[in-house]
Amino acid sequence: QVQLVESGGGLVQPGGSLRLSCAASGFTFAGYAMFWYRQAPGKEREFVARITSTGGSTNYADSVKGRFTISRDNAKNTVYLQMNNLKPEDTAVYYCNVRTPIAYWGQGTQVTVSS
């Protein structure tokens, strides 16, 4: 069965960095685009970033463009989200997602940006 397991979240000060990882299994990872979403308390889940199956193209939400970088390692079945210059408004639970076309989600990893 499809499994997505996020890791790498934590507490970081404004301006700091974190790298999230999402380990995937149960499907042909190299055949699918991968996504990162986030959900802040009291808000709807929102799109953060997307990467194509080969990693050749990426897209970002305007709110993270220039600060976040999505990447993938198809040999390791893992997608990453490098987050730099973090702001308090980036505080959220971050989820990775794949559409096969059924949508699968991981359990999420908490990112808290606070001084």
Description:
The chain is an all-beta fold. It is 0% helix and 51% strand. It contains no helices and eleven strands. It has strands at residues 3-7, 10-12, 18-25, 34-39, 46-51, 58-60, 68-73, 78-83, 92-99, 103-105, 109-113. Strands 2, 4, 5, 6, 9, 10 and 11 form a seven-stranded mixed sheet that branches. The mean pLDDT is 97.
How many strands in all? 11
Silhouette:
globular
Helix fraction by DSSP (H/I, runs of at least 4): under 10%
Task: Note the beta-strand portion.
Answer: over 45%
Question: How many DSSP H or I helices?
Answer: 0
Q: N-to-C SSE series?
A: EEEEEEEEEEE
Q: N-to-C terminal Cα separation, in Å?
A: 40 Å
The largest sheet, given as strand count, sense and whether it forms a barrel, is: 7 strands, mixed
- Provide the low-confidence segments as ranges: none
Topology:
Layout lengths: L2 E5 L2 E3 L5 E8 L8 E6 L6 E6 L6 E3 L7 E6 L4 E6 L8 E8 L3 E3 L3 E5 L2
Parallel strand pairs: 2-11
Antiparallel strand pairs: 1-3, 3-8, 4-5, 4-9, 5-6, 7-8, 9-10, 9-11
Briefly say what this structure is.
The chain is mostly beta strands and 115 residues long. The chain has strands at residues 3-7, 10-12, 18-25, 34-39, 46-51, 58-60, 68-73, 78-83, 92-99, 103-105, 109-113.
Comma- or semicolon-separated keywords:
single chain; 115 residues; mainly beta; four-stranded antiparallel beta sheet
